């Protein structure tokens, strides 16, 4: 009798779990494939294009100064070499400051996009879960293996695109 109860006790959770329908979603992948996310991200990147051009230009100037210092440094007077080094240091500081500023703008822009898209992602996951009668949806990053029929990422992306 004890063995039967023990067997039933061990089998019941397995049977209950068998009735559960589980889906797996890659939320970042779903967002990145969503048209609205891509549009917003492209706008963010284009808004930072001026900074990127300035970064490229400053990087070129710094390299030019370094090259000049390497080639002509031995033939320059101490004052000329010092001036060139000072110019290079100033350009480097300007480059670093501009890079930090651009990174802050990019991070802020990405955060703003996520603030807008996160509730939409949640709604899309809920809609797909209800449509497919799922009891549980797990983040794909927390899963080691999943059968492809359990992955709802593409369906979530389609739902996001339909929510425009």
Automatic annotation (TrEMBL):
<feature type="compositionally biased region" description="Basic and acidic residues">
    <location>
        <begin position="69"/>
        <end position="82"/>
    </location>
</feature>
<feature type="signal peptide">
    <location>
        <begin position="1"/>
        <end position="16"/>
    </location>
</feature>
<dbReference type="Pfam" id="PF03938">
    <property type="entry name" value="OmpH"/>
</dbReference>
<dbReference type="InterPro" id="IPR005632">
    <property type="entry name" value="Chaperone_Skp"/>
</dbReference>
<feature type="region of interest" description="Disordered">
    <location>
        <begin position="69"/>
        <end position="88"/>
    </location>
</feature>
<comment type="similarity">
    <text>Belongs to the Skp family.</text>
</comment>
<feature type="coiled-coil region">
    <location>
        <begin position="34"/>
        <end position="68"/>
    </location>
</feature>
<protein>
    <submittedName>
        <fullName>Outer membrane protein OmpH</fullName>
    </submittedName>
</protein>
<keyword id="KW-0732">Signal</keyword>
<keyword id="KW-0175">Coiled coil</keyword>
<dbReference type="InterPro" id="IPR024930">
    <property type="entry name" value="Skp_dom_sf"/>
</dbReference>
């Amino acid at each position: 009798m004890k063995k039967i109860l023990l067997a039933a006790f061990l089998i019941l959770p397995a049977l209950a779990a068998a009735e559960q329908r589980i889906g797996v979603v890659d939320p970042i992948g779903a967002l990145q494939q969503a048209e609205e996310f891509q549009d917003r991200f492209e706008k963010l990147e284009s808004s930072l294009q001026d900074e990127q051009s300035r970064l490229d230009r400053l990087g070129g100037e710094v390299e030019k100064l370094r090259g000049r210092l390497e080639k002509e440094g031995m033939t320059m007077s101490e004052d000329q070499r010092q001036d060139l080094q000072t110019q290079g240091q100033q350009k480097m500081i300007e480059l670093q400051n501009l890079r930090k500023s651009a990174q802050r703008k990019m991070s802020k822009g990405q955060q703003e996009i996520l603030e807008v898209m996160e509730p939409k992602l949640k709604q899309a996951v809920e809609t797909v879960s209800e449509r497919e009668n799922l009891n549980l949806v797990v983040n794909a990053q927390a899963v080691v293996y999943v059968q492809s029929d359990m992955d709802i990422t593409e369906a979530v992306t389609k739902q996001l695109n339909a929510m425009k």
